[in-house]
Write a structure and sequence with these properties.
Blueprint: H1 20-23, H2 57-60, H3 71-74, H4 76-89, H5 91-95, H6 104-132, H7 143-150, H8 154-171, H9 184-196, H10 205-216, H11 221-253, H12 258-297
The structure holds zinc ion.
Zinc ion (ZN) binds at residues 34, 36-37, 39, 49, 51-52, 54.
Length: 298
Amino acid sequence: MRTTKGSTEVTPTDAPSTEPAEAATREIPHDLFCQECGYNLRALTSDRCPECGHSLETVRAARTQIPWIYRKEIGRFRAYWRTIWMVMFRQRVFGEEMARPVSYPDCQRFRWVTVLHIYVPILLATLAAYAIGPQQARPFGDDLLYEALTAVWPVPIFHTLILLYLAAITGVPSYFFHPRGIPVALQNRAIAMSYYACGPLALTALPGAAAIVAILLRGNGYLGMAAQLFAIVLPFALLLIWLIDLLHISRRVMPQYRGRAYLILVCVPGLWFFLAGLILFGIPLFIWYIVLITATMF
Ligand SMILES: [Zn+2]
């Protein structure tokens, strides 16, 4: 993490510009809960939790620890992947960001960059499939089925729906993070952090690549089996890390709403699958139905 303070220092637009010297005695202004024991840290002036001794150093840090904020200084690539690392493997430190204002435009930009990390490999795979497609022998005896599966016009529609789906699933968790009972400032931080939590999805290309290897090797040999396993397990692992991050944020900002955590645990994955059914299957079926109806009319 950055500890040096230079002339190029970037402070998030709404972050307090408190000096570290006075930070240790600054009162914590909100209901903010210890990550270890759930003790309410409000109005505390010490640098350790009085209940369990957990260090409040990262809670008290005046500057955000999210690398993405410092992308102009350390470069976009490094800032992005360091943030992914933080969101995936340093979830406690990530959770402590609740102590500071979290910039909304920055988290949105991070979200859309993550969406592109999922979408661009899909786009490239589609283009590659079309580039090598015509040389292949027709795998289906049925010409009509072949026409239907290789028609070009549904491709842009399907890609639009994929983008719509990615926008929906990365946005939907935020709805669970603004119960009226908590201060508006904390609601805003929790919402912004819920967008960062989708970071693990940036690695979606890995199981995709594993799936291609598994198909090419037809699951033969240890490599083929490993690729198959990787392609199946990894997507669930990424979704799980995302969900655990959301639970961390929930526990951090509103432990008094225990039901909210269970709601997130059940409803967020439920919504991911529901939206997949609706956007990726429901809408194409509807479009196909409309096309069939209009085709039979002429
Ligand atoms: Zn504690």
